[in-house]
Structures are given as structure tokens and as C-alpha cells.
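Marked as duplicate of an earlier ticket. Keeping the data here for the record.
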Amino acid sequence: MFATGLTRALLCVLLLQPLVTPAGAAAVPQKLANDGQLLMQGIPPIPNSLTQSLNRYQNIRSASFAGWSEDSRSIYVKTRFADVKQLHRVDFPGGARTQLTFEHDPVGEVEGQPGGGLLALTLDHGGDEFDQIFLLDPGNGLLRLVSDGKSLNNRMIWDRGGKRLAYRSTRRNGHSNDIWIRGTGPGDKAWLACKAPDGALWKPIDFSRDGQYLLIQQFLSVADSRIYVQRLPDGEPRLLAGSAANPSTNIATGFSRDGKSVLFVSNQRDGAAELATVTLDDPPVTRYVPSIANWDITQFALSPDRRRGAFITNENGISRLYLFDPERLRYKRVDKLPVGLIGGLVFSPDNRKLGMTLNSADSPNDAYVLTLGRKPLSYRSLTRWTFSEVGGLDTAGFSRPIPVQYPTPLHYGSGEDAETRVIGIPAFVYLPPGKGPFPVIIYIHGGPESQFRPGFNSEFQLWIEHLGVAVIAPNVRGSLGYGFRFMAMDDGYRREDAVRDIGALLDWIAAQPSLDASRVAVFGASYGGYMALAAAVHYSDRLSAAVDRVGISNFVTFLENTQGYRRDLRRLEYGDERDPEMRKFLERISPLNNVDKIHIPLFVVQGDNDPIVPASESEQLVRALRERGQTVWYLNALNEGHGYARKENRDLYQEATVLFLRKYLLGE
């Protein structure tokens, strides 16, 4: 938790003590910025001219669809008019955004109460991600805490009558992801509805119409998730989809209209994620809806009356929206939508409209509403409800992503049976105007079970305009969106195969006349931060600089220190450090144990309250690099977690990043 009062003052004093430096070396300059909340070590003063030149990019806003008013006439959005995103109400398309929350931290999840008008929402503290659940009365703006105030509480759902709220919580022992249920009254107490086994994340998905059954999602890993149903209040969860014998991804959406089956998304047939239904019979019977050209379904939503559905597909990184008829199991694509990324599907309480968030290469997130027709697959029009500011920039002139594939070797088998073949790694290339050759920033996404997709990206555009660089975003082995086999290609002992994809990308860059292979920097956040560090270990002779944002420096210390509620989930992806052989492997590939191979300047960015990748991961790396006399800039926000949510911190981070890249990538 964030330190306050005397404790915080002592912390700042300790942070300002002389840094460890090699014998005879000058002390590393350091200071506190942003009212003492941002620690800057080794970072030179930011010129006022740089701050002013980036001002337009730093004042881009966005609005994400967050829900509907009870009468279905107004919408709720999350947007920022001050330092962090808060909840606002919009009463008509293009209307003013009326702010409803005024908290120090950004609003997280939002769930509207059926038939009651209250909003359940989550807030953490200083980015620590220990979400607490509050009930908001949008009429008077009053917030009331309904979770325990200490443990992690989120993934909320209401029952159909708005009388009970189910949610995931770690309150039992601090690390088990159980399901709790409580009423809405001030005197109502929460009760443990489903005790989760250690090492799994359980969350509620839906109540049956009569409130007697709870649909439950179990998440073991990105490749193994299962669906259960439980009779309330004290029945045993019964498995409906997924198994240990044949792991697959099964994501529940909700009960059918008649309550006799469950609709979900699955890749059980070893292909793309597709729609399916499963009965509540014992044994359950599964029926699949024919897939759409092998494209993954990324979100599936049902209307309150369960007569309609809608889902989004990921088609080569672009979102497509489809309407779905749950009774006939048919679907129809919604045409003439802006080309970009879609998310946040929410049907209105009256079942007549579908809200969503949409962005494109030249437009940030904004809220849209699709007016539906009388039949499940019919619709009338799409209306844009919010028009977010872009800082006065001409976004029509933004660089557009170019999809490419580059070759990388795939090794399989061993000994005499060892073979190598070439596979293609998908990537998106953003070029500045002109002929080049341009310096390059390689941007590696986090996850690792994630995917870079070509939506609105103001940071890329800022780099392109102010640094004159090309930006390349690869989807290395282990990324989502390209099938189960591709996603599993970096698991366990194959971790460094993904790092080799960066080496293959450097080879590809060297063959492009428009790119300057002598000036390449690598940038990554979270798992992407590990990848940036690993690239610096293996390819320092081919790189100019690296930026590591909240990255893993040592897999063993990461697994030992990440929060208990997520530790076993990460062991399934990276390997179990308690196993001697795996521990030896993880120690061998960890950048912290290979700092002698890093010969390029690094910029390390951290949030002090990060529960996912603890600040100790960055601190031990910075210390080890400085002991070897390496150039390293360090930025640590004391009031942030796994990423910077506050505008003033993001602004200074962006300015320092540009300054770092100007010096070490461009050589200015």
C-alpha cells in the first residue's frame, strides 16, 4: 500500500540516499518530481522546449463505454478531464459528459444494477490492484464500500433482480480466488459461495433466472480454462466444459433464455475460438456453432432477455462485429463499421441497443451505440456518442500500420531427429514520411499471452513525429490471435525461442533499404520488458538502447515475490521455480544473471506499488547494472502500479523516454 505521513517522508529520505556506484565513479544524479511522487535517477533535466513540443500528444483524451442508465436513455463512460479516468454520464449523442465520481484513483470495473439503478464499481489504491467494490448512487454521487477494504475484490456480477452481487475475492487467505456473494443493504454481510482450490482463478459469470444456480469460470492458464455450474447456496461446482485430460480454453458467457444450457466460447476442437452451447444435463452435451473462417472470437455478450447476442472476432488484428440469434444459433456480420478495434459490448436494459467502445488508427477510444431491429439479427444504425479530443492534432496524417511477416527458424526434435523449418512472424510497421533509412524502435507487447493490434496509438505517433523513427511491433511466438500451437511455442523451456524472434527481426531490418540497422532500440512493458532486457543480453552488438517498463529481470525472484493470488497462474506459463531443474533454467535465462552481456544504455521504468512485477525486479537490475558501470536511467512512481494511470506521471515518463532515445538512439 502507498506510504503516508511520517512513513512516506522516511521513504523519500531513504530513496534519496547515495546510489551504489563503481569505485571512483561520480554519484548518479537523482531528484523527486510531481510533489514527491516520482523518483528520477540518472535522468537529466527535461528541457521546457521538449515539454511544450509534446503537449498536444499529452492532451489526447478517450472515452470507453461503461454501461447504461436503468431507463436505457443515457450511457456511462470512463474518461479523463483531470489526472485520472472517472465515471461520467452522457445523455445523448455528442452531449456533455457529466462527471459522477471524483476519486483520487481511476475507476475500474462498472456493473449496473438490474431494476435498481445503482452502479457497482471498483477502485484500487495507488495502482496496487487490490480492488475494492463500491456501490454508487448516480443520482446523488454517494459511494458506499461493500467489500472488506483489504483483499482483492473484483469481477462483479448482479443477479437478475439486482438483489445480490457476486464477485471474486482473496479475503479468505490472501491468495485463493474464491467467489463471495452479498446483498446490497448496509447491514448485509458477504458469504463464501465457492471456495476455489489453490492455484486457480474462479470468478462468477451469471446467475440463473430463478437465482438458484451460479455459472462459474475457472482459469488455470491461457490454454486451460473450464466452466462449472453450482446450485446455491452450498452445492458443489459441477464441470460443464473443459478437462484436465484435454486442456482447452472455454470462456462462459451466460445461461440461455430457457435456463437449460450455457453459451460459451471454446477452442476445444483445436482450432480458433468458436461459439458453443452446453446443456446442464449430467453428462452435459456440447454443440458447436460453425466457426468464422478460423478467426478467434474475443468477446461474446448476451442481452438481458437472452433473445439476442453479439460477438467480436479478431480478423488479422482487426475487429469485426456480429449479431447472434441464441435460439437458432445463427449470426450475421454488422457492416459499414469503422475499421479498427471494438470492445466493451453491453446490451441496454430494454434489449434494444448495443453499446461498445471503438477506436481506429486515427481516432482514440470513443463510445458508440448500435440501434437494433425487431429480429435478433437485424439492426438499424450505428451512432457515435462521444467525440474525444486529440490535442489539436491532424490525425488524418498519422502513420498507418503496414502488416508484414518476417521469417524465423523453428527448431523441433532433438539429437538425430532434430529438424529446423522456417515460420513467419506477423508484425506491423509504422513509417515516418520520407525515404529513410530510418532509425527503428522495436515495440514488444506484454502478456506474454497478448497480441499487438493496430488500434489508436498516440505513443507511436509521438515517436514518429518527434524522433523521425520507424516503429515495428512484432507478435512473437507465444502471442494470441494465431492459434493454440503458436501461443504455446514459448512455454516453459522454450522461453528463449521468442527472444530469437527479435534476432530474426533484426536480420529482416538489415535487409530493408528504408530502415537503418545501425540505429535500433527495443522497448517493452511487463513481459515485453523482460523481452527487451533479454534482447539487450543477446543482441547488444546490434542494438543502440533499450527501454524496460515494469519488466521481469529474474524469473525466480519474480515468481517468489509476485502476489500470491496470481503466483500459481504464472508458474503454469513460465515454469515452477520450486522444481530444481526448472529453477536452474530460469536462473540461466534471467537478464539479471546476464548483465555482463548488456552493453547498451537502459531506461528502466517502474511503479512502486506494482503487485504484478514488484519494484524489486527493477531495483535489483538497476543496482547490478550500475555496479558494472553501465548507463541506466531509472524512473519510479511511488503512487503507481503496473503502468502509469496519472497524467502528470505519464507526461514526465513520455518526456524522459523521448530524451533518452534522442541521446542514445539518434545520438543527439
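See parent ticket for discussion. The longest strand covers residues 419-430.
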